[in-house]
Amino acid sequence: MYLATHELKANKGRYGLVILILFLIAYLIYFLTGLAYGLASDNRLAVDQWHANRIGISQYANSNLAASTLGPDKINLANLKPTQAPLGEMAAVVNKVGSQKDLNATIFGIQFDSFIKPKLIKGHQVTTNHQVVVDERLGNGTVKVGDQLHINGSQASYHIVGLTRNNLYGTLPVVYTTLGTYDQLRYGSARVKNVSGIVYQRASDVQQIKGIKNLTPQALITHIPGYSAQNSTFSLMIGALFIIVLFIVGIFMYILTLQNISVYGIMRAQGISNRTLITSVLDQSLILGVIGIGLGLIANQLTVLILPAGIPYANNLMLVALFSIGLLAMVVLGAIFSVRQILKIDPIRAIGGTA
Amino acid sequence: MSVLELKRAAKTFKSGDTETQAVQPLDLTVDAGEFIILTGPSGSGKTTLLTMMGGLLTPTSGQILLNGQDLGRMKEKQLSQVRFADYGFILQSSNLIPFLTVDEQFRLVDRLNKKSDEAYEAELLAAMGMAGEKQSKPNQLSGGQKQRVAIARALYNHPAVIFADEPTAALDSERAAQVVQTLRDQAKEHHVAVIMVTHDDDLLKAADRIYNMVDGKLKDVESLGRS
């Protein structure tokens, strides 16, 4: 560490450049990670709140909840246990009464005595048709208990009786209502008794019904249209940045080692061991990595403070820790390119002799 | 008492089918505190001989014994330890580490030795007239100052032998004479043997023994009639 720190201090310009590049890449990685995690979370928050074991949907829906319809011949609502919750799902556009502004939302039709009823932060649960509980993020937080909504251009208005938090599905705020209202909105009549799926709380509640495919919550989320594609895109970008870090640090450390070959050669001639020199290079890379990555993380967290509310960014400490360790590993791995160069140093050449 | 002994030590370089005998088999004994100068034309094998004695090059035949230990039987790690603990090197150009101050050059040795002797460092630097330059970096020193620090650094580790390969090549004659005289005085005071390669005839008077090397053969200067 002694050699490493003194060399870094003596060559602030050169090593500052490496730190700058590491900082920029680390910043980008943390930002992309936060966006990827935020976007993934916004797809699944509502499903995660159920703490369900399985979700049964039509086997013809290609595992896509939005494409699933189960009629009364499949699900008899009257015979369900409290741990078996029917669910109607549809995409919708809502407007606050008196406002022309269209707000995208996901409608969940549920039974409000079932285990998938939303946790409220304000108001009360839905008790009759034409009442809704909405996620607080609907309209970027502009809706409140007591407001009324039109749904999909309906003449009828729906009263907001409660607000919930972190209930998003497919990145859209969820509007919870009764199954009757859901069927009215989707099929034109509350007398229709269709649902999209049935949510099972426990494995022991799962029923094998012909025409119904039982999915894990994870499988259901993975099949949300666009979910896998966006996650793969982010993963690819982040993975590519890790490889770029490896090469950038590798090339920089290699060049800096080449520039120091004569110094290292003299040190070798003086009996300073390869181990000391290699440790010095690895220590240098570690110090550069910690500073560059640390600054990237700090800048990232400062950026988060000024991000507009609509950007789906979320921190995940586990991912941040994992990627920080991963980045540091890449930095040290990059420096290992230079180790071979050090091992090849000929001290005789360094002191002006010929071998 | 001899610290370094060469017994029929020779070095041959091979390049394809061509063999070049850089150092012919030679015998040499170096005593503690002795100041030996090697002269000779370029390409005569002086640096090869110096690097062999310095444990950087293995002799093709013969033996090089440091305090009775055969360097030829040592592995690279042991040789590295010998170079660090028993040898000091003063090279043509400065062999100071460019990013360390004068003081830090000594601290590095301390760290590797896991012990410190700042009083001895101060004594050596004072003897070299460099006491006021402890915080200077090598690029802030003149050529002569760098070589005086290099001598102090070489002596700091209490070596048995110091190898100096044209240490005054970059200095003017007056400064060269001062540096060599200082090296000689310190070597005598600390009983360190010095083997110095030089082309500068003006420096020969500092030597206890002078050897001339021609075509890989070592000849005592007196045998050449240059007493």
UniProtKB/TrEMBL annotation, chain A:
It is a multi-pass membrane protein. GO terms for cellular component: plasma membrane. Pfam families: FtsX (PF02687). This is Putative hemin transport system permease protein HrtB. Part of the ABC transporter complex hrt involved in hemin import. Responsible for the translocation of the substrate across the membrane. The chain crosses the membrane at residues 15-39, 234-256, 277-299, 319-339. It comes from Levilactobacillus bambusae. Belongs to the ABC-4 integral membrane protein family. HrtB subfamily. It is found in: Cell membrane. Residues 237-347 form the ABC3 transporter permease C-terminal domain. InterPro entries: ABC-4/HrtB_transporter, ABC3_permease_C.
From TrEMBL, chain B:
It is a peripheral membrane protein. It is found in: Cell membrane. Pfam families: ABC_tran. It comes from the Bacteria. One of its GO terms (cellular component) is plasma membrane. Keywords: ATP-binding, Cell membrane, Membrane, Nucleotide-binding, Transport. InterPro entries: AAA+_ATPase, ABC_transporter-like_ATP-bd, ABC_transporter-like_CS, ABC_transpr_LolD-like, MacB-like_ATP-bd, P-loop_NTPase. Residues 4-227 form the ABC transporter domain. Its main location: membrane. GO terms for molecular function: ATP binding; ATP hydrolysis activity; transmembrane transporter activity. Belongs to the ABC transporter superfamily. HrtA family. The complex is composed of two ATP-binding proteins (HrtA), two transmembrane proteins (HrtB) and a solute-binding protein. Part of the ABC transporter complex hrt involved in hemin import. Responsible for energy coupling to the transport system. This is Putative hemin import ATP-binding protein HrtA. It comes from Levilactobacillus bambusae.
